[in-house]
């Protein structure tokens, strides 16, 4: 990583899925990965680890599902997203351009699945 490059540790990033009052997830991004520079997003992958009781099966995401994202102690953001769309996260950094991360919302969310970061 070059000195002064925008980067963020995704350890504290949490995505929670809501459907009809039920919570699916949350999906925790772990492995202590850092992403840096937009060109590295396509090759970096982070592991989603579920700590909730839905380990036995997947949840099919629908148009009415709510995706909540939280990064560290930051406020959470509620987004209505359809499966197959991209969740784009823009993080302000101390130096340089804002850091943009794209996560495709899958048709099914499985505990322990790998989610690509673009």
Q: Structural class from helices and strands?
A: mainly beta
Number of helices: 0
Shape descriptor reads: globular
Task: Give the spatial strand order of the biggest sheet.
Answer: 8-7-2-3-5-12
* Share in β-strands: over 45%
Radius of gyration: 14 Å
Given as residue ranges, the uncertain stretches (5+ residues, pLDDT < 50) are 1-8, 25-60, 71-79
- What's the story with the biggest beta sheet? 6 strands, antiparallel
- Number of DSSP E strands: 12
Structurally, how many domains make up the residues?
1
Overall mean pLDDT stands at 48
3D structure, described in words:
It is built from no helices and twelve strands. It is mainly β. It has one domain (7-116). The strands form four sheets. A six-stranded antiparallel beta sheet has the order 8-7-2-3-5-12, with no helix packed on it. Strands 1-4 form a two-stranded antiparallel sheet. A two-stranded antiparallel ribbon has the order 6-11. The chain is globular and about 45 Å long.
